[in-house]
C-alpha cells in the first residue's frame, strides 16, 4: 500500500460525502442547476436521478454513480459551491446586491443603459426605460411606496440570474483507479 493511498474506510466515507453533495445538487431547483457549467455526464446523471426519485434502489445506485462522477473534484470547494447555490446562500445575496446597485444607478442616471446593454445583450431598452419611468413616477408620487423600485430590482435580478454561469472547482491532482484503467485501454 502506497503512503498517500487512503484506507478503505476513508475512501468509503469520502464517497458518502460526495453522494451527499450529489443529493444537495439534486435538491437545488432546476434553474439553479443551470447556473453551473456541469460536465454533460454529471448533468445527465442528475437528471436521471431526478427521474428515478420514486424507485428507491435505482435511485440509490444512481446517487452512487453521481458520487463516482464527483470523485475527481476536491470535496471542500464543491461543498462550499453547493452551499452558496442554496436559496438564501452567497450567490443569492450577491445577485441581490448587484441588482440593487444597478437599480440605484439606473434610477439616478439613464445613461447606465449602455452598461446594461453590454452586460445583458437581450436587454430590451424600451421595456427597461418604461420600468425606470414607472419607478421614478411611483417614488415621486409616494416616496414610501417602494413597489415600483422593487419591481425594477426584481427584473434586474432576473436578468443577472439568467446570465449567471458558475464552474465546478478544479479537479484534484489525484486520479482515480477507474480513470487510469480507461486511459490504458
From TrEMBL:
Keywords: Cytoplasm, Ribosome biogenesis, RNA-binding, rRNA-binding. Pfam families: DarP. It is found in: Cytoplasm. Its main location: cytoplasm. It comes from the Bacteria. GO terms for biological process: assembly of large subunit precursor of preribosome. GO terms for cellular component: cytosol. InterPro entries: DarP, DarP_sf. The keyword Cytoplasm applies. The keyword rRNA-binding applies. GO terms for molecular function: ribosome binding; rRNA binding. Belongs to the DarP family. NCBIfam families: PRK05255.1-1. Member of a network of 50S ribosomal subunit biogenesis factors which assembles along the 30S-50S interface, preventing incorrect 23S rRNA structures from forming. Promotes peptidyl transferase center (PTC) maturation. This is Dual-action ribosomal maturation protein DarP.
Amino acid at each position: 500500500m502506497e503512503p498517500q493511498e487512503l484506507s478503505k474506510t476513508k475512501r468509503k466515507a469520502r464517497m458518502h460525502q460526495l453522494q451527499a453533495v450529489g443529493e444537495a445538487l439534486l435538491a437545488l431547483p432546476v434553474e439553479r442547476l443551470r447556473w453551473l457549467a456541469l460536465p454533460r455526464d454529471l448533468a445527465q446523471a442528475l437528471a436521471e436521478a431526478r427521474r428515478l426519485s420514486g424507485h428507491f434502489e435505482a435511485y440509490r445506485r444512481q446517487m452512487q454513480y453521481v458520487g463516482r462522477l464527483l470523485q475527481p473534484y476536491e470535496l471542500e470547494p464543491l461543498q462550499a459551491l453547493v452551499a452558496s447555490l442554496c436559496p438564501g446562500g452567497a450567490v443569492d445575496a450577491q445577485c441581490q446586491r448587484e441588482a440593487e446597485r444597478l437599480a440605484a444607478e439606473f434610477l439616478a442616471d439613464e445613461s447606465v443603459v449602455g452598461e446594461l446593454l453590454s452586460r445583458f445583450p437581450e436587454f430590451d431598452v424600451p421595456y427597461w426605460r418604461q420600468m425606470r419611468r414607472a419607478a421614478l413616477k411611483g417614488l415621486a408620487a409616494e416616496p414610501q411606496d417602494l413597489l415600483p423600485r422593487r419591481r425594477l430590482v426584481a427584473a434586474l435580478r432576473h436578468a443577472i440570474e439568467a446570465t449567471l454561469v458558475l464552474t465546478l472547482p478544479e479537479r484534484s491532482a489525484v486520479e482515480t483507479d477507474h480513470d487510469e484503467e480507461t486511459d490504458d485501454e
